[in-house]
Amino acid sequence: MNSEIRNLEPKVLWNKFADLNAVPRPSKKEDKVIAFMKNFGKNLGLETIVDEVGNVIIRKPASNGMEDRKMIVMQSHLDMVHQKNAETSFDFDTQGIDMYVEGDWVKAKGTTLGADNGLGVATIMAILESNSIAHPAIEALFTIDEETGMTGAMGLKGDVLKGEILLNLDTEEDDEIGVGCAGGIDVTATRTYAEDPVPEDFMAFKIEVKGLNGGHSGMQIHEGLGNANKIMNRLLYSVISVIQISEIDGGGLRNAIPRESVATVVFHKNNTELIQSSFQEEIKSIKKELKTTEPNLEIEFGSTNTPSKMVVRDFGRNLIKAIYAAHNGVYSMSADIPDLVETSNNVARVLVKDGEIKILCLTRSSVESSKMDLANKIRATFELIGCEVEFSGSYPGWTPNMESSILKVMRELYVKLNNEEPHVAACHAGLECGILGTNYPDMEMISFGPNIKGAHSPDERAQISSVQKYWKFVLEILKSIPKK
After folding, report:
1. Number of C-beta neighbours around residue 57 at 10 A
2. Other Cβ atoms within 10 Å of 282 Cβ, number
3. What's the mean pLDDT in 308-319?
4. Where is the Peptidase M20 dimerisation domain (predicted)?
5. Considering only CA atoms, which of 99, 54, 98, 94 is closest in space to residue 77?
6. What does the pLDDT read at residue 397?
7. For residue 387, what is the DSSP state?
8. Helix %, strand %, coil % of the chain (to 5)
9. All domains of the chain, ordered by start, with CATH?
10. Alpha carbons 229 and 237: distance in angstroms, whole number
11. Has 116 been annotated as catalytic?
């Protein structure tokens, strides 16, 4: 029950999170949450603006005694990734998130939780509403569509914000202070294909890949997690000479490592035993390779109703080869920052159905030239089989500023509060700081947040004790903002 969420400490934050999670807010469908935030600011009597793309800006004057401090921007995004388990019945357009507590974690029932970035939004709401928290003048910036295009950050004009320091509350490790991030670009391959009728002496198998962890296609790309699209394609490749594709439907959002894939293949009845034995051998190998990272992986196949049409043989085989060749996972590591993934790609969606193909990828890099190098490699792979390949949604990375005054303040405060050094790092994910920095190049920026695990998947969860640690950190930061 969400009532137990409201009794967690700090109550001011968790209550705002519960309020927010009652409002549907999938990416690109933020009308309800925009109205919710606009009413929230207006009801507090604060200056509230909704810009032309839908970002909400709420301004609050400094508390008594804090008027001589630099104005800050506190920023989080309103939208959330909408992913659910296959067996979960849920409408993200109309329903609020159903949350529960399990030990030290807050989770959702069969869906993403929305802690990314709802906990950041709730933090800012709690501060805006409070009459007792010491803080400098605040511009609260709530952006839209961060998860599927960052169009909110891209659409924010350069003359709107007045703050000198931006606190982005979208990092998912509570010991990390973020000073940089990767940029990204969407790569979409499409084409039509010819179909043949399925001969009468053919039969069909339905293949399912499921039970994978999924997760964030940037922050978790280095963890060796299984990609359902690549696993499915590997199975098809193992019998490429004797099967033909009827349909493939795998993955979903670009920024989520795909968890499930379903395919229907057809073949001559005489090849049934060969295909069964090949599948069983390949499944055994895949499960052995992924036994540590994907212990719940399930791969099932069996007879199904024979469809009427199939992809023409030669093109179907070339498609399997192209998906096999398309890079997935880490492409290169940073030579400058230890343990940082520099460039990666996520083969996020493969749809082959009714004469049309659509393959979606998200390529990320902290180096712009490397991002485009990998994107071009993927484009070339699919152009070789006649696909039209489009680049879209490109956004820049965020270059670290290790000399910023707010970094020094936060580093010292973290040590004081926790008796250990924070992990100052860039991350392999798309934060809005890089985009915002193009219009506000002189604004100091920093990113931090509480522990959130499994973001972008139905296993998303927020750690209660970490939120308490983070909240104390936030309050100390607000009191310690440098003077003008």
Report:
1. 21
2. 18
3. 97
4. 207-292
5. 54
6. 87
7. -
8. 30, 30, 40
9. 2-181+397-479 (3.40.630.10), 185-395 (3.30.70.360)
10. 12
11. no
Q: Check 30, 79, 176, 444 and give the catalytic one.
A: 79
- Residue for token digits 């792979």? 381
Burial (Cβ within 10 Å: 0-12, 13-18, ≥19) of residue 132: exposed
Among 116, 146, 164, 444, the active-site one is 146
* Beta strands at 423-427 and 99-102: parallel, antiparallel or unpaired: unpaired
User: Identity (one letter) of the amino acid at 11?
Assistant: K
Angle formed at CA 316 by CA 315 and CA 319, multiple of 5 degrees: 85
Reported as type and span, the H/E element at residue 374 is helix 368-383
The rounded distance, in Å, linking the Cα atoms of 356 and 319 is: 12
Catalytic residue status for 79: yes
Residue 216 and residue 214: Cα distance in Å, rounded?
Answer: 7
Q: What amino acid is encoded at 164 in this protein? A: E
Exposure of 275 in the CB half-sphere (CA atoms within 13 A): 25
Q: Two tokens at 458?
A: 């139905």
Is the CB of residue 167 less than 8 Å from the CB of residue 178?
A: no
Place of tokens 């019998």: 239
pLDDT tens digits, 148-162: 888 999 999 999 999
Predicted confidence at residue 337, as pLDDT, reads: 81
Sorting pLDDT into bands at 50, 70 and 90, what band is 39? very high
